[in-house]
Amino acid sequence: MILSLFSFGTILSCVYSVNALGTSCSAPLGPGLAAPGEPFWLETIKDQGVSVYHPNASDYPVFRNVKDYGAKGDGITDDTDAINNAISFGGRCAGGAQICNSSTVSPALVYFPKGNYVVSTPLNTYYYTQLVGDARQLPTLVASENFTGLAVIDADPYIPGGNGAQWFVNQNNFFRSVRNFEIDLRQVPATNEAGTGIHWQVSQATSLTNIVFHMSTANDTAHRGIWMENGSGGYMGDLVFNGGKFGIHGGNQQFTVRNTTFNNVQAGVSALWNWGWTFQRVTMNNCQIGFSILTGGTTAETQSVGAEAIIDATVINTPIFIQTSKPSNGSLSGSLVLNNIKLDNVPTAVGVLNGSVVLPGGTTTIESWGQGNVYSGADGTPRFVQGPIPAPDKPSVLLDDSGHIFGKTRPQYESYALSQIISVKDHGAMGDGRTDDTAALQAIFDEFAGCKIFFFDAGTYIVKSTLTIPADSRIVGEAWTTIAGRGLKFQDIDNPQPVIRVGEPDCQGIVEISDMIFTAIGPAPGAIIMEWNVAQPSGVNGGTGMWDSHVKIGGSDGTNLQLNCPTRGAGAFIDNCFGAFLGLHLKPSSTPYLEGTWVWVADHNLDGDGSTQISIYGGRGILSESQGPAWMIGTGASSSYW
Ligand SMILES: *[C@@H]1O[C@H](CO)[C@@H](O)[C@H](O)[C@H]1NC(C)=O
Ligand SMILES: *[C@@H]1O[C@H](CO)[C@@H](O)[C@H](O)[C@H]1NC(C)=O
Ligand SMILES: *[C@@H]1O[C@H](CO)[C@@H](O)[C@H](O)[C@H]1NC(C)=O
Ligand SMILES: *[C@@H]1O[C@H](CO)[C@@H](O)[C@H](O)[C@H]1NC(C)=O
Ligand SMILES: *[C@@H]1O[C@H](CO)[C@@H](O)[C@H](O)[C@H]1NC(C)=O
Ligand SMILES: *[C@@H]1O[C@H](CO)[C@@H](O)[C@H](O)[C@H]1NC(C)=O
Ligand SMILES: *[C@@H]1O[C@H](CO)[C@@H](O)[C@H](O)[C@H]1NC(C)=O
Ligand SMILES: *[C@@H]1O[C@H](CO)[C@@H](O)[C@H](O)[C@H]1NC(C)=O
Question: CA 78, CA 143: separation in Å to the nearest integer?
Answer without folding.
Answer: 10
